[in-house]
Amino acid sequence: MKSLKQQAISLGKYPITIRGAKIGISTWTIQFPSWTGAELSRSVAGTYRNKALVNYFGEPLFGELAVLRWLEKDGWEGVWVDTFHSSRTEKLYWKGLLDRTAPCSLPPKAKKLYEKIMSNHPKDGGFFDVFAWRKGKFLFVEYKSKGDRLNDNQRLWIRSAINSGISPSSLVIVEYLKRAK
Questions:
Q1: In this structure, are residues 161 and 113 in contact, taking their beta carbons and an 8 Å threshold?
Q2: Which of 18, 23, 68, 166 has the largest count of CB atoms under 10 Å?
């Protein structure tokens, strides 16, 4: 089975300047098939129901969760960090679709790193979508669906992560390519 990176149709770099130095964040362009089955349960909040579903081997998932599933196949553990619906006091982390799972917690080392990065970040939000860990290493993946691109808060978060000691090689942007039919 291919890894997430091997699924990429193209690889590239997203340029960003940190402390006067130009660095590149890896970008992987992935093509996920569209989900054509049943929609999410009406019990799920409307903002979630507006998110496109992709088909991950017969399982409907948000793109962020499909990225997480690929990483899990590569031996990573992780979560989708739902910054959009989180608050300052309640952070939401998911391992599956909301109508099928409950929010989960971060393990202690991951939680400590999350808090360190966010203590250097001037705003709520911006944290990359997928936070994964394997054998003492951490990986942060931002999923960009059709028409989406990094916003100012996410660029600030990249700076905060790097200023917290995260290597740019631990940051990846997975970009949407027109979904296959």
A1: no
A2: 68
